[in-house]
Amino acid sequence: MTSVLDARGLGKKYGRRWGLRECTIDIPAGHVVGLVGPNGAGKTTLLKLASGRLEPTTGAITVLGGRPAGKPAQLARVGFVAQDTPVYAGLTVAEHLRLGARLNPRWDATGARERIARVGLVPTQRAGRLSGGERAQLALTLGLAKRPELLILDEPVASLDPLARREFMQGLMEATVEHEFSVVLSSHLVSELERVCDYLIVLVDSRVQVAGETDTLLATHHRLSGPRRDPDRLPADQHVISARHTDRQSTFVVRTDAPVHDPAWTVTQLSVEDLVLAYMDKHTAGDRRVTLEARR
Fold first, then answer.
1. Minimal CB count within 10 Å: which of 48, 70, 160, 193?
2. Would you state the pLDDT for residue 285?
3. Beta partners for residue 223, in sequence order
4. What integer pLDDT is reported at residue 86 of this predicted model?
5. ABC transporter domain: which residues (predicted)?
6. Whole-angstrom Cα distance, residue 6 to residue 23?
């Protein structure tokens, strides 16, 4: 099966700063992919490269087997909803739908009208007078009505209240079940991703830290707590992601395919949020060590 997104050594530089570097991932079709990381990690850069809004500085990327935005037919296969849920303030809801029909050859006019009615949008109302949640639902409707094979969403619920977020995500999940397309979704709200995503990519410091099916990642990462121990004394197959120590106790998050049998350790499973924070903590711990070395 053709990958939804295949990146090899992908990088994007803004002047002298790397927005994304050394990105190699291969996302199979049929997943709802959560893309997560701190501000400035490269999430938006990766999504803009995937949608053809940016050109890479290094490496290569294909989306649905083709070059992003390479031809009109390729553009029609990919939907994109940006972070600010862009709509035209002066156009009515109905005018947005008519514009979408003119621009998209696979446009589902009936589905768009039915969804607008279902979420309670008034066709004659101008977009500039909609609430944040209503604008997000309009932007999602425009993305879904393209009938894309891949829908890319960049922080689509970041500015919404909890009820609007829930309604947005529920509508998205219902559409993926009904129409069987793939989704790549970035968000700071890990709790939202944990409920809907079955594939996870963690970006930190412009690099991919880990990527894979969520169930597999959770099955191969563990929290170990026990008497204080140097990480070098752990078995070679236990890759340390993050470590915290007190005078008497050590707590590690490790990645391993093998069972942990050491009776000295208390082993607990991680949530998706625990997993993400462990990779972010690994990065910040490295920053702290560099700072301390610089001060010596």
1. 70
2. 47
3. 253, 268
4. 76
5. 5-230
6. 10
What CA dihedral angle connects 157, 87, 94 and 182, to 10 degrees?
Answer: -50
Cα 41 → chain centroid: 11
Q: Give the Cα separation of 280 and 253 in Å (integer).
A: 12
User: What distance in Å separates the CA atoms of residue 293 and residue 296, rounded to the nearest whole number?
Assistant: 5
Question: Which residues are CB-contacts of 30 (< 8 A; sequence separation ≥ 6)?
Answer: 180, 182
Q: Which CATH superfamily is domain 5-205 in?
A: P-loop containing nucleotide triphosphate hydrolases (3.40.50.300)
C-alpha closest to that of 23 among 58, 52, 53: 58
Which H or E run contains 23?
strand 17-27
The pLDDT assigned to 83 comes to: 78
Helices (H) and strands (E) counted in the chain, each on its own, are 9, 13
Angstrom distance (rounded) from CA 139 to CA 118: 15
Amino acid 182 reads: S
Other beta carbons less than 10 A from residue 281's beta carbon: 16
Would you state the pLDDT for residue 296?
38
Which residues contact residue 76 at a Cβ distance below 8 angstroms, ignoring those fewer than 6 apart?
104, 105, 106, 146, 148
Using CA atoms, how far apart are residues 115 and 171, in angstroms rounded to an integer?
9
Ranges of the chain whose pLDDT falls below 70:
1, 85, 282-296
Torsion sign (Cα): 27, 28, 29, 30: negative
Predicted confidence at residue 287, as pLDDT, reads 44
Domain ranges of the chain: 5-205, 219-295
**What's the pTM?**
0.88
Ramachandran category for residue 139: left, alpha or beta (phi over 0 → left; psi -120 to 50 → alpha): alpha
